[in-house]
Amino acid sequence: HGYEISVDANKSFAGGSWISARFNMTYATGKYDVYEEPDYGYEWLSWEGKRLNQITGLIAERLFIDEADIANSPTQMFGNVMPGDIKYKDINEDGIINSQDYVPIGYPTIPNYIYGFGFSAGFKGFDFSCFFQAATECSFRINYEKTAPFVNNGQWGSVTANAMLTEWADNRWTESNRDCYAMYPRLTPQIVSNNNKSSTWWLRDGSYLRLKTLEFGYTIPKKACQAMRMKTFRIYFSGTNLFTLSKFKMWDVEMSDNGLNYPIQRVFNLGLNVNF
After folding, report:
1. CA 126 → CA 41, 200, 218, 234, distances in Å?
2. Residue 22 buriedness (CB in 10 A; 0-12 / 13-18 / 19+)
3. 3-state secondary structure string across 236-266
4. Contacts by residues 156-160 (CB-CB < 8 Å, ≥ 24 positions apart)
5. What pTM value is reported for the model?
């Protein structure tokens, strides 16, 4: 279920000046009222009542500090765990971290709210327009396997992540800096199964506000155009994707889980419209 709102307003003034504004918003959400599934024994494992496109995963507490920390924590059933790996919360308190500890995390991957708003105006031959795009109540997970440095991700084709993102390099767990809240776990030459699980460790807010388009132009008066044997002459500057406001700073938030893909482009144009 959901709804849509669209509002447009226009106003003309003496002397040929004008202004217009527009706003639209879409809200859409859904949930599973009935889902054919076995009785899991824990309500958080059932899909009934969950939202469509809901992310599920483990609750990450911090990184393991040392071997003693691992020995005194619930057993994590995701391969060999070492200091610097992600420590998860035992949701059902059975002393074991496994698939039964997966819970809903964050918002759905598709935004609940999508907005658009902007305005246009004209005054004595000058014109200006801009349009903003926004989305809220959405989440995504950083893809650990695709963005892990120094690891050949064979199943993703010939892509080799030889480079390290600045955020990983500046804020990672090391033997000399055992920060249990570092942004990135220990570095390895292979994918660590324990760290590759869906969890709040990689969960990010996908909300954003983007200046999608902007244009500024000037149209030469008709008398000047006629003197140059032209009907109209307009020069303009335009741009797309000029800036984005988002809590997520590592790459363009609309790229979602994998920042190593080709990025969304910022484009500038300078042009002329001439009619003879």
Report:
1. 67, 50, 4, 9
2. middle
3. EEEEEEEEEECCCCCCCHHHCCCCCCCCCCC
4. 159/260
5. 0.86
Strand bridging mode 56-57 / 232-245: unpaired
d(CA 139, CA 257): 10
DSSP secondary structure code for residue 58 in this structure = B
Contacts of 257 (CB under 8 A, 6+ apart): 140, 141, 142, 143, 146
Cα–Cα distance measured from residue 105 to residue 59, given in angstroms and rounded to the nearest whole number? 8
Query: Using an 8 Å Cβ cutoff, are 23 and 117 in contact?
Result: yes
Q: Report helix, strand or coil for 147.
A: helix
Would you state the pLDDT for residue 22? 97
pLDDT in tens, 81-119: 999 999 999 999 999 999 999 999 999 999 999 999 999
Are the CB atoms for 147 and 256 separated by under 8 Å? no
Q: How confident is the model at residue 155 (pLDDT cuts 50, 70, 90)?
A: very low
Q: Are 187 and 218 in contact (CB under 8 A)?
A: no
Q: CA 93, CA 51: separation in Å to the nearest integer? A: 26
